[in-house]
Amino acid sequence: MSTTSDTQTPAEADADAALKTRHRSMWAAGGYPEMVEAFLEPLGPRLVEAARIGPGDTVLDVAAGTGNASIPAALRGARVTASDLTPELLEAGRARARDLGAELDWVEADAERLPFADGAFDKVISAIGVMFAPHHQAAADELVRVCRPGGAIALLNWTPEGTIGGLFRTIGPFAPAPPPGAQPPPLWGSEGHLAEVFGGRVELDLLERATLEVTAFERPGDFAAHFKRLYGPTIVAQANARREGREREFEEALDGYFEQADLGGPDGARFELEYLLARGVRRP
Ligand SMILES: C[S@@+](CC[C@H](N)C(=O)[O-])C[C@H]1O[C@@H](n2cnc3c(N)ncnc32)[C@H](O)[C@@H]1O
After folding, report:
1. Atom 10 (ligand 1): residue with closest C-alpha?
2. Which single residue of 79, 107, 131, 149 could bond 284 by disulfide (Cβ 3.0 to 4.6 Å)?
């Protein structure tokens, strides 16, 4: 299936628009901003640090959500554009930026067809974001295209082997069938996949696996409930399981998954969420 607007047939363009509408409502469902507050907040500054963002850099944050990476980048003096598919999340980001005194631009955009000129940014970043665009090659091509030669691309992605990779394998069988050509999000957290999608156009100089420790939940079931209430992909998989009469099976699979992923003890649950931090220079 072709994925870029200049190679799509009208029927493919319609199918892609319908798919992105579904993705937009998936990410607007629940309460993703509350998840960021609860345990995801450290990831944005980690990516900004790895990307070595400083005053005067022009930065594009792709699939920026509520600006978890964009806002710290702007607070370092960079000129930041936060782009995302989901207007509700951009709106929450605008409010958060106002509260924190950060100034940046917010642009609704699909990572697979970014509305920016070739080479427009010094740094292109994405924190657990671009990995959710379904057509990985199209999205990678766009990251490379909008980064200036000699500029940097820096990404933070959940790994396939980590806890969120496992979550996607657990909920996948309950979710609506993926569209043709879609690849699983956690593939972006594999070193080999990054080398493949960038294909020599980016010289990767940092590839580091690390973990986000989560201790905000008393019991593993509380973490499972958090995902069921707030996380779009989990909400959509559960609704589909309900339609298929498999909701109980879904609940057992999800609760069981977080039980076995828990590394905590009597003082509370503890999870380690593995991610891959990657940075590279865009070759001329
Ligand atoms: C897990 S959230 C991450 C948001 C943010 N980067 C953060 O660190 O909190 C995934 C984001 O990807 C966005 N997204 C999903 N598909 C996208 C696409 N095709 N183009 C742009 N953004 C997309 C969603 O709207 C959502 O904001």
Report:
1. 129
2. 149
